[in-house]
Amino acid sequence: MSSVPPPEPAASLPSSTTTDAAAPRAYTLRDRWADYKTLVKPSITRMVVITTAIGFALAVRSGHSWTWLMLIGTLGGTALSCMAASVYNQAYEHRTDAMMPRTAKRPLAAKRLPMGEALALGTSLMLAGQAMLCMFGTPLASGVAAFTILSYALIYTPLKRVSPISLYVGAVPGALPPVIGYAAVTGSLFTPDAAAAWIIFLIMALWQVPHFLAIGYMYRKDYAAADLAMHAVRDPSGRSSFRNSILTCLVLLPAGLAPTFLGFAGWISFSVALLSGLVFLGLSIQWAMRPGLTSARRVFFASLIYLPVVLAVIMIDAR
Ligand code: HEM
Ligand SMILES: CC(C)=CCC/C(C)=C/CC/C(C)=C/COP(=O)(O)OP(=O)(O)O
């Protein structure tokens, strides 16, 4: 992990040995557990597990055999990989995280946890995830998971400081979990059947663009203070954010319909994806017409509804 900054002493770790009444209270095991939990980003890990399960289900549906052990090992291994990626991300970003209210209380940003301990945790999670994916899934699944961790931690994360392009780079690891789930069952990703997994990848990758453009705008002052090169920092008017949001929603609209055209989802999926895509696009257009926080928040909330709804209906209305 050459681009992860070197460990620092945890200078402000609270002391449990002092008797000074004004001293911070002891750092208990429960505090450490809570910090570990923050480090592994449980909410993103939950979504990663769900989307990995979708890729797994698509492979099973196309006739590949599976076992419960394979399913549990794949979901567990991918979850551990996501946790590892999240730890490395926070290790790299501890200084910029410390400058933003949303992230300042994270354990490494707040210097509650020693950097060495976090890196050991991240590496243990990564190795355990790799072992589980190899043992219960396939080597291809573990290879894609390794690529996902590395591209998130070593390419996307450093790029956040350099260019708004980081958003499109980050969309790749964010969209790979269903591909990992599919590869864990089939061991191959370039057969005609695998198109289903790649379409879910495409929908997720495109969806992340308005998702994060809205967040970037909502937190633009924080990102600017931390000198992160988001669209909304480079162009505080929001123009480049909502233009990119509209353009991506325009491409996402047909991508959401592709499962029906490719024959692995039906017309209910088509109708729901069309309606959701039009609402998502409409809210991005409204953002352009009435630039501001309220419009950006609407796009963000729409993103939180769009993805689960569209993915659920693709699975329910399966062919
Ligand atoms: C380029 C990729 C992505 C970026 C930069 C990004 C960034 C973020 C940020 C900064 C937040 C916090 C917003 C807040 O605290 O108000 C957030 C929230 C959220 N993101 Fe993403 N995200 C990305 C991809 C994803 C992916 C792939 C998923 C799931 C499949 C996802 C699911 C969520 C959910 C459910 C929330 C809302 C609740 C929460 O914070 O847990 N995001 N995203
Ligand atoms: C299997 C596996 C390894 C999955 C990993 C998937 C993954 C970590 C997706 C994250 C997508 C993403 C770019 C989130 C934002 O990070 P951020 O650093 O911009 O968010 P932050 O500001 O909250 O830290």
Automatic annotation (TrEMBL):
It holds the Pfam family UbiA. The keyword Nucleotidyltransferase does not apply. InterPro entries: Protohaem_IX_farnesylTrfase, UbiA_prenyltransferase, UbiA_prenylTrfase_CS, UbiA_sf. GO terms for biological process: heme O biosynthetic process. It comes from the Bacteria. It is found in: Cell membrane. Its EC number is 2.5.1.141. Its main location: membrane. GO terms for cellular component: plasma membrane. It is a multi-pass membrane protein. Belongs to the UbiA prenyltransferase family. Protoheme IX farnesyltransferase subfamily. Keywords: Cell membrane, Heme biosynthesis, Membrane, Transferase, Transmembrane, Transmembrane helix. GO terms for molecular function: protoheme IX farnesyltransferase activity. This is Protoheme IX farnesyltransferase. It catalyses: heme b + (2E,6E)-farnesyl diphosphate + H2O = Fe(II)-heme o + diphosphate. Pathway: Porphyrin-containing compound metabolism; heme O biosynthesis; heme O from protoheme: step 1/1. The chain crosses the membrane at residues 66-88, 109-129, 135-155, 167-190, 196-219, 240-258, 264-287, 299-316. HAMAP family: CyoE_CtaB (MF_00154). Carbon 2 of the heme B porphyrin ring is defined according to the Fischer nomenclature. Converts heme B (protoheme IX) to heme O by substitution of the vinyl group on carbon 2 of heme B porphyrin ring with a hydroxyethyl farnesyl side group. It comes from Algisphaera agarilytica.
